[in-house]
From TrEMBL, chain A:
One MF term in the entry's GO annotations: transmembrane transporter activity
Protein name: Ribose transport system permease protein
Transmembrane spans: 62-80, 92-113, 143-163, 169-186, 210-231, 262-281, 316-335
Region (Disordered): 1-45
Compartments in which it is found: Cell membrane
UniProtKB/TrEMBL annotation, chain B:
Keyword tags: ATP-binding, Nucleotide-binding, Repeat, Transport
Cross-referenced CDD domains: ABC_Carb_Monos_I, ABC_Carb_Monos_II
Native source organism of the sequence: Actinacidiphila bryophytorum
GO molecular function (one): ATP binding
Residues of the ABC transporter domain: 1-235, 250-493
Name of the protein in question: Ribose ABC transporter (ATP-binding protein)
Record gene name: rbsA
Source domain of life: Bacteria
Length: 367, 496
């Protein structure tokens, strides 16, 4: 006992005393312990870069940084377990499979930051898909199909928005109802048959490449960039944060809260329409079961991306990282011929871990 | 209770309160808003811990570390805002927290019978124990609250303005119940502003002022004038800015005109005007309709009838966006829940109502936005002077400045302030007063609501006195006396 306790005060005193006396050694060891962290394995490569990035990003984007680290770790795991992971072919594969859900997640992020939720995204994709692939629509060619998909998505989203904002029905319930009935409409239109796309130029959306990267990936990237600009650089984005953060304060500050809420669901619907085009082109047919469970995937991506489910706070960048994390996990599992059950368990654990991380961050930030 | 003190950050809510309540009496507690009544009640209920002072119960010193402890001693509290669970039945509410249960299973039959007995003893056998509480009238809910208080072995019931939600008949019944309780030896601590009620049921009166007992245990028939005198004469700790030198404000254009604004149950036939550069104060008790009038003027609620005109043009009723466009701004009473985006920076909170000015086709020029907001923030001497700081880290006074900066940036013509100094510490108040005066001098028409009479008399040019939703008096603030205003505010309507 006494052997252990006596050296301890001496150790604690040591850096203090020389520091006061101006000794170089004492001053040098202190900061390095505090800032760099004692574990070179964990913080060594990321520590310096992390601090650099910290200066570049405001504190609330820390979460995205954490996700980036998770993504890099996944990359390490993928490379270690499969020789095929770090090939350009595989990276393109990951991005391509992230494209559809990525576009949907852009809309979902807006809705959730605005204090709502959209459970109907998968069903909207299905309706838009079967509507734009009916024989009648296909007869109008590529433009007619694109127009139909986007307008159908927008219309269903608008209906959601009107019911929620002006009908004052809770978003969860409205979109739950829409999830069921829109899927039903899709089944009715298609008679549960898949509708093969015969318009060649439409299918080329999924197959065409530019510089070796599929058009789908560019499309997603463009929508993510547009979404990011809309959220962070426009009055619309600012109002979205305000409406989600404190709807009463937003109303009393003179924001047209109901109209804005409606527009958020319209936006989500448009994203679903675009996603429907992408997904339909990939499968070269419209079907009523397309987009199944996409609502859960997109919500999960938004949540692990650091957006508060309660609204008012969030990051589109984080949401997209969330999508990439999920698609990368799937990819690693496929490459290693692992069954999907473990994959689902891993997804669940990641969601929980992300939320726990958010809580500790939330507890720390008010200080 | 002896020498109770309680300090909150920035304010001493209780500063040596003495209070004696004897079994079987109705002890009335009188004091202006902010005198410390609510804090005192919370100390008694075990919800707040006093910083010093002693509580004695039956002659024995006690500590009440929690509401449950207070209940165990037989102290029950009926708060102003009823704390019932709307979705539960009457019986479940009465026994909430001490359910009649065996092995975790509630004994529904026994609970219902016990509830029925309690309600019958309160003279309300018509309230069925199975009814959902949310479907009852406020008066009935209050009876349920009281039944809940009695379901414990209660020896002291604290009632915080119980008559505020009741009609005349219901007040009569409440008094009958109180009479029965006191006859059975239960003590009642009764808080009310209404002198007539104190006369009708009070045994003794204790008067609080500025967190101190100024008179304890007076007989209930002490003349009103004496009681009012005790409540007032508060030393004002604040400096009020000078009104326009020379006394009379220059005749300026009328900016805000309110005509016959009516909302049954809240306010009736309210008409007034505010000129540019003028500060008009609305005084009244809680429930006199003061905040409701502001909200109706702002379009946050839609009044049943009446018109609001800004610069001679009528505003569409119930449309905040239209009011803001016409140049009206509101600093609401509940800053945190009604005005601020707490997690956001000061800049974003200030600019939120003026984003259109810094954008083209919706595209924000953030540099201009930040510069303009920072300029207003600096002009108001908001501290710390870091416009990127999260607004939740600011003190109450500085948060209020952020709200004012929002409307300053917007360039509003009419500023509505609801309890502008609530939650603002003493030092910052004088600063806010000076700020409001400065705004008025720059031509803004200011209409503000306050429950603190000295604040209205010190800050306003003109005061409107409200009682039960009607303007009962209007005068130049400088010519009014605090005791006179209190008389007007508290007096029971003669025709009732």
């Amino acid at each position: 006992m006494s052997d252990q306790t006596t050296p301890r005060p001496a150790q604690e005193d040591a850096p203090g005393l020389p520091a006061q006396a101006g000794s170089g050694a004492g001053v040098a060891t202190r900061p390095s312990l505090v800032k760099e962290g004692p574990d070179p394995g964990a913080a060594g490569p990321g520590g310096g870069l992390g601090r650099q990035l910290l200066r570049l990003f405001p504190l609330h984007q820390m979460h995205s940084l954490g996700l980036l680290v998770v993504l890099i770790l996944l990359g390490v795991v993928g490379t270690a377990t499969s020789g095929n992971f770090l090939t350009s072919n595989n990276i393109v594969n990951i991005l391509t499979s992230a494209a559809v859900i990525g576009v949907i997640t852009v809309g979902q992020t807006f809705v959730i930051i605005g204090g709502g939720i959209d459970l109907s995204v998968g069903a909207i994709v299905a309706v838009a898909s079967v509507w734009c692939t009916t024989v009648a629509t296909q007869s109008h060619g590529l433009a007619g199909m694109l127009f139909t998909a986007v307008v159908v998505g927008a219309a269903v989203g608008l209906l959601n928005g009107i019911l929620i904002a002006y009908g004052k029905i809770v978003a969860f319930i409205t979109t739950l109802a829409m999830m069921a009935s829109a899927r039903g409409v899709a089944e009715r239109i298609s008679d549960r048959q898949s509708q093969v796309v015969t318009v060649d130029s439409f299918n080329r959306i999924a197959t065409d490449k530019f510089l070796g990267i599929p058009l789908l990936v560019y499309l997603m990237a463009a929508i993510v960039v547009l979404g990011w600009l809309l959220l962070n650089r426009t009055t619309f984005g600012r109002h979205t944060f305000a409406v989600g953060g404190n709807p009463e304060a937003a109303r009393l500050a003179g924001i047209a809260v109901r109209r804005h809420t409606m527009l958020l669901y319209l936006l989500s619907g448009v994203c679903c329409g675009v996603a429907a085009v992408m997904l339909t082109a990939r499968t070269t047919s419209g079907a009523s079961n397309l987009g199944n469970l996409y609502e859960l995937d997109s919500i999960a991506a938004v949540i692990i991306g650091g957006t508060l489910l309660a609204g008012g706070r969030g990051s589109l960048f984080g949401s997209i990282l969330g999508v990439l994390v999920f698609t990368t996990i799937t990819n690693i599992f496929v490459l290693n011929n692992l069954t999907t059950d473990i994959q689902e368990i891993a997804k669940g654990l990641i969601i929980l871990a992300a939320v726990l991380l958010q809580r500790t961050r939330g507890a720390r930030s008010p200080a | 209770m002896r020498g109770i003190t309680k300090e909150f950050p920035g304010a001493k809510a209780l500063d040596g309160v003495d209070l004696d309540v004897e079994p079987g009496e109705v002890h009335c507690l009188l004091g202006q808003n902010g005198a410390g009544k609510s804090t005192l009640i919370k100390v008694l209920a075990g919800a707040h811990q006093p910083d010093s002072g002693d509580l004695a119960w039956d002659g024995e010193p006690v500590v009440l570390p929690s509401p449950t402890a207070a209940m165990r001693h037989g102290i029950s509290t009926i708060y102003q805002e009823l704390d019932l669970v709307d979705g539960l039945s009457v019986a479940d509410n009465i026994f909430l927290g001490h359910e009649r249960a065996r092995f975790g299973l509630t004994r529904r039959g026994e609970t219902a019978t016990a509830a029925r007995d309690l309600l019958r003893s309160l003279g309300h056998p018509e309230i069925a124990p199975g009814t959902e509480v949310g479907s009852l009238s406020p008066a009935q809910q209050q009876i349920v609250s009281m039944a809940r208080a009695l379901s414990h072995d209660t020896r002291l019931i604290v009632m915080d303005e119980p008559s505020a939600v009741l009609t005349q008949d219901e007040v009569g019944n409440l008094f009958r119940v109180i009479g029965e309780l006191t006859a059975a030896g239960v003590a009642v601590l009764y808080i009310s502003h209404r002198m007539a009620e104190i006369r009708a049921i009070g045994t003794r009166v204790t008067v609080l002022k500025d967190g101190r007992t100024v008179a304890g245990g007076l007989p209930a028939d002490t003349p009103t004038a004496q009681l009012v005198a005790l409540m007032t004469g508060r030393e004002s700790a604040y400096d009020f800015p000078q009104r326009v030198p020379g006394g009379e404000p220059p005749e300026r254009d009328e900016v805000l005109r309110v005509e016959h604004l009516t909302q049954p149950g809240s306010f009736e036939d309210v008409s007034f005007t505010v000129r540019a550069g003028e500060i008009v104060g609305l005084v009244g008790l809680v429930g006199s309709g003061r905040s409701e009038i502001l909200h109706a003027v702002y379009g946050a609620t839609r009044p049943a009838s009446g018109t609001v005109l800004v610069d001679g043009k009528a505003l569409p009723p119930g449309r905040v966006t239209a009011a803001v466009r016409a140049g009206v701004g509101l600093a609401p009473e509940e800053r945190k829940s009604q005005a601020l985006f707490l997690q956001d920076s000061v800049v974003r909170n200030v600019s939120i109502s003026s984003l259109g000015r810094f954008s083209r086709f919706g595209w924000l020029d953030r540099r201009r936005e930040t510069a303009a907001a920072a300029e207003r923030v600096a002009a108001l001497d908001l501290r710390p002077a870091d416009p990127q700081r999260a607004v939740r880290t600011l003190s109450g006074g500085n948060q209020q400045k952020a709200v004012l900066a929002r409307w300053l940036l917007r360039g509003c013509r009419v500023l509505l302030l609801d309890e502008p100094t609530r939650g603002v510490d003493v030092g910052a108040r004088s600063e806010l007063y000076a700020l409001v005066r400065e705004l008025a001098d720059s031509g803004v028409a200011v209409l503000f609501v306050s429950s603190e009479v000295p604040e209205v008399l010190g800050l306003a040019d003109r005061a409107l006195v409200l009682r039960e939703g009607r303007i009962v008096h209007e005068a130049a603030a400088a010519s009014l006396k605090e005791s006179h205003v209190l008389d007007l505010v508290m007096e029971e309507s003669a025709h009732e």
